Amino acid sequence: MNSHTRPDPDALQALRVIIPTRNEQFALPRVLDDLQAQTGVRLRISVVDGESTDQTVRLAQSRGHEVIVAPPGRGRQLNCGWRSCTEDVLLFLHADSHLASPNLLSEALAAWLPHASDTAGHFRLEFVDTPQPKPFFYRHLEAKTALNKPQSFNGDQGLLIHRTLLQRIGGFDESLPFLEDQTLGTAVRDLGGSFMTLPGVLQTSARRFETEGRLARYFAMLLIMCAREAGCTDFLRDAPGLYREQSATGPLRIAPLLQRLLHEAEQRPQTWPIVTRYLRENAWQLPALADSATHGRWRLRARFEENLEPWVRSFDTLDPAIARLLRWSFGRVAPVLLRRR
């Protein structure tokens, strides 16, 4: 075939891209432009809007894309999106994603399709709009997105998944305003499936960390995951400012969130033993942090997983004492430090 002959569009892999939005008039045009520039794939785009009050819907419609109006809440919006389309291959993207390469999706599909029946794909993240040189904080977060460790998948990494696997899972969890990505990641693994890191990089904005405060948002993420593990759903559902829409972000006050979680934890005696076990199971994050600091020179995470992780996971003798220490630390030490800051 002549090298200048354009491929038949009908012969290209069909891919439905689903983008949940709520007041994303400033971020949305860029990702739509990036998708328009993709080659080697046949795209259809659905913008699933959660009652935006800005120009998000008008912008999407002006570009000829399908707009689905859904109740706000990312899990509900994502479910409305994939259940309203017919394609088998689905890509879920956040509105502030940036596809820097025009071959990103075609190369991702080529790597993922042979494993699509039981594997979900995601991209390694690269944070943009960060101070330069890029702080270690962001370099560490970027490194973690390629590890495929349990509970390390987040929706801003993109999600490439086959309809049949998503149907087996039952779709996205709608019980909370967020965390649908974490719940889906757990469900994939519970079914015996896996995640793969797709070739290429998906860029995303650092705006939430920069506006809310890097350490404040990271500590809030720790509180979120601990609360999820312990079943503190009232905290996750009602805590003010815990996870605001991007357009409404500002400095994040940790002390009220921490006090709210501590109050609910006191009503649930098993909270601290559960949190202790969760932290023990995620001890790999400490050597991963050291690897990021040393640019992987010592391979500490790999050595930890080979030699120490099974022992740490099974070593529960000290859990009661550690649980008491955690309860005391969160209840006494953390609020004092936060007030001083």
Give the secondary structure arrangement, pairings included.
Blueprint: E1 14-21, H1 28-36, E2 42-49, H2 56-62, E3 66-69, H3 74-83, E4 89-92, E5 97-98, H4 104-112, E6 119-128, H5 136-144, E7 159-162, H6 163-169, H7 180-190, E8 194-205, H8 207-212, H9 214-230, H10 233-238, H11 254-266, H12 271-281, H13 285-293, H14 300-307, H15 309-314, H16 319-340
Parallel strand pairs: 1-2, 1-4, 2-3, 6-8
Antiparallel strand pairs: 4-7, 5-8
Helix pairs in contact: 5-13, 9-11, 9-12, 11-16, 12-16, 13-14
Concise overview:
With 341 residues, the chain is of the alpha/beta class.
Overall description:
This protein is α/β, with parallel strands linked by helices and 341 residues long. It is built from 16 helices and eight strands. A five-stranded mixed beta sheet has the order 3-2-1-4-7, sandwiched between helices. Strands 5-8-6 form a three-stranded mixed beta sheet, sandwiched between helices. Strand 2, helix 2 and strand 3 form a beta-alpha-beta unit. Helix 9 packs across helix 12 and helix 12 packs across helix 16. The longest helix is centred in the last third of the chain and has 22 residues. The chain is globular. The N and C termini lie far apart (66 Å). The model has no long low-confidence stretch (mean pLDDT 91).
Give descriptors for this structure:
single chain, 341 residues, alpha/beta, three-stranded mixed β-sheet, 16 helices
